[in-house]
Design a protein that fits this description.
The chain is α/β, with parallel strands linked by helices and 349 residues long. It has helices at residues 3-19, 96-104, 124-127, 130-145, 166-174, 181-191, 196-203, 240-245, 273-276, 301-307, 322-336, and strands spanning 25-31, 40-46, 53-57, 66-70, 79-85, 108-112, 117-118, 121-122, 154-164, 226-230, 250-255, 280-285. The strands form two sheets. The protein has a ten-stranded mixed sheet. A two-stranded antiparallel sheet has the order 7-8. α1 crosses α11 (322-336) and α4 (130-145) crosses α5.
Length: 349
């Protein structure tokens, strides 16, 4: 979608998306993954048919959760399917705010927890294995298309990959982006302490001079028709030939302006990925920072994080409204994927 149309759709839909109650159906799935030693935990958000009981997904001591109808029947019809990849150290339930809003607009959202790269299980040595992350979502897609309850509702012509941070790299890998090990080493050397991803991998003893050959392989899934990457990692290392071959539409979203991390900047000030892709749109959501994409924080969360020595994931630039930023992001994605804001009216018991 042209940049001007994305902006227009955002302005038209922002107020409604910020105030509507994102009630959707939600269920958990177990996905067989031959490339993993154990099945994957997966979740599916979808347009609501017959409601069941309400539950809260993703709530913990730091983050607010998202309300859903657990195990509800899916609405009649066929819907776009979004494959969602979380960032390193994240998890699928923390992104429920986005899944719920997209499902309320008429999409099915399928997410997985990437082993070795999730909350409480985030290893630099395992997170760097990008081909395994891509294979996780390919396995999940295989599973949902074979599921008799959900497969008839998938519009196979409208399957998109979507990811945040390291998950943004995964979304682009599924869309055809291939990586160059030497280019990534050069990027890490050039940016030094400004490359948050390289610092993370270094803490785990990852030898960038000995990345696995599999790191460079083609992870594309031909069923992907569009891709969305929010603050994507690895964009400096994508090969020029794979970029030129990515003719499918791509939406790139950055968080923040002067607070934007160089590691995830796809504008001309960073990797300039947006200008090099054949069919890319770019948007910046500000004020905010990388962590603004995570679920809304509870009031006591900043103090709790300080006490536990964790990253300041609830601290943001002055003027940031995380809920409003979420509404902007959801509206941008919905416009790009041509979702119907009226596809699922709010339903209550």
């Amino acid at each position: 979608m042209p940049r001007s149309l994305v902006a227009a759709a955002l302005l038209a839909g922002l107020t409604a998306s910020a105030t509507a109650e994102p009630l959707a159906g939600y269920d958990r799935l177990t996905v067989a993954a031959p490339h993993r030693p154990a099945p994957l935990a997966a979740s599916l958000w979808y347009p609501l048919g017959t409601p069941t009981y309400r539950g809260i997904v993703g709530e913990n001591a730091v983050f607010e959760g998202t309300e859903a109808y657990v195990g509800a029947a899916i609405a009649d019809g066929r819907f776009p399917l979004v494959l969602l990849s979380h960032g390193s150290g994240g998890n699928m339930d923390n992104l429920s705010w986005l899944s719920a809003q997209l499902a309320a607009r008429g999409a099915m959202v399928l997410a997985v927890n990437h082993p070795g790269s999730t909350t409480g299980d985030s290893s630099p040595r395992r997170s760097i294995l990008l081909s395994e992350r891509a294979a996780d979502l390919t396995a999940a897609l295989d599973a949902i298309l074979a599921d008799p309850a959900f497969a008839p509702h998938v519009d196979a012509a409208r399957i998109a990959s979507l990811g945040f941070s390291l998950g943004g790299a995964t979304a682009l890998n599924l869309a055809g982006a291939r990586l160059d090990r030497r280019a990534y080493r050069d990027y890490c050397a050039r940016l030094g302490d400004r490359a948050a991803d390289c610092l993370f991998f270094a803490k785990g003893g990852v030898d960038l001079a000995a990345l696995p050959e599999d790191w460079e392989r083609d992870m594309r899934d031909a069923r992907i028709a569009a891709a969305v990457a929010i603050d994507p990692g690895m964009s400096y290392a994508i090969t020029p030939d794979s970029i030129a071959a990515m003719t499918l539409p791509v939406l790139l979203v950055n968080l923040g302006d002067e607070t934007r991390w160089p590691a995830i900047d796809v504008s001309a000030a960073g990797s300039d990925l947006v200008a090099r892709l054949p069919d890319a749109s770019h948007a910046a959501v500000a004020p905010g920072n990388h962590f603004t994409f995570l679920a809304e924080c509870k009031p006591e969360a900043p103090a709790l994080l300080i006490a536990e020595g964790e990253d300041p994931i609830c601290d943001e630039p002055a003027g940031t409204d995380r809920a409003r930023a979420h509404a902007e992001i959801a509206a941008l994605i919905a416009a790009f994927l041509s979702l119907d804001a009226e596809a699922q009216p709010a339903t209550t018991n």
